[in-house]
Amino acid sequence: MDTKMVRDELWLLSSLLKWSFFSIMAGVVVGTVAAGFLISLDWAVEYVSSLSNWRYLLIFPALLFSLYFVRILAPEAAGHGTEKVIDAVHRRAGIIDIKVVPVKLIATIVTIAAGGSAGKEGPCAQIGAGLMYGLSKIFRLDESDRKKLVICGISAGFSAVFGTPITGAVFGVEVLFVGQMFYDVLLPSFISGIVSCFVAAYLGAGHLPEFAINVPLLAPSLIGWSLFAGLFFGAVSVFHIECLHAVDKKFKSLNIAEWQKPLLGGAVLLAMSALFGSRYLGLGMDTVDEAIRGGNIPFAAFALKSFAMAVTLSCGGSGGVLTPTLFVGAAAGSLFGNIFGLDPSVGSALGLAGVLAGSTNTPIASTILAMELFGAPIAPFAGLVCAVSYVVAGHRSLYPSQVMLRPKTRTFVRRRVGGKTMITGRFEGLSYSRIIRFHLDKILNKIIKRK
Prior knowledge:
two-stranded parallel sheet; mainly alpha
């Protein structure tokens, strides 16, 4: 046998052993801390829920506390966690202040328990990434290995919350880039995600519930409905993304003192609760469960939840965007099913996956999430919905720090504009005939080359 080949195999084996060790350690550490966070959050939510109706006023001091607690102790922990982690991986060589972990944990618990409309996945990802950065310092890893370990922490954090290890692992890798995945990180992410999921479950942390829905058999008409649903959920994703960015921009432009912004945000959330009910406050997983079980969901629920999330995170609240996104998707799916006479349960399941795919540019992870939650029969429908929603959402995301490695279609190209790399249209004007001719020429050239 060739000596070089043997040497290469030994290097691969040593790398496998090395990253198996680090991945298992990441899963145990992140799973343990994430379980503590989730259990504490559940306890805080239950305790506040047991109080009288005056508890709704806690939203004002909670948002004020979150704003200044984060700003003073760890500014990196501001906003939703996943965005900060993506930014750290791409722009700061995976360096994350370890103070982010306790600060993010406390601020998120206070925000959500008091009624803030935010999620728990992003904070877990940020906690996992922060812990793994600390571990990389202990083992004195170089920049490449440090970033790899931080990504393992992200995947472990998602897996602990979702309770779906494959989804968590793939999401942690897929969410970093648009248009390409780095498979060298996939195995460590799988290991850390699976270990973290089982550790969190063993310690009693809550997960997304498992659902039993009747998925129809594959048929041409249902494929057509899935494509149409993908268009609808892609449009909902665009609304969801633009709502967050528009509200955030509006709060930043307000000519008022910083301490007044949490008070304004709290007043808006209380007004929403008084007008439309309290289902839009907090995590909102009860509504997700209700939608997927075929319950009666208000037709504007997805828009109201999207707005409530945007207000919470823009005025100083701490938390993630994924749990609200699942709410938005499930509610939009229920609406889609009711409008077009489809099973609302199946519509909600597809909406949950489709809006997640379109809003975060993660069609593969979103399809796997649908399979892990609803079973393998939903795979072809979820795959179509997620792929179409991903394309329809365009080059936008809940996470502005995502790196666009390649456009979603060849109708767009990456160009240097004003010193920055941007995704722009290949054609100056919108001409469908030119676009069609372009793609036909590409196909013909490939056929000619093969001959």
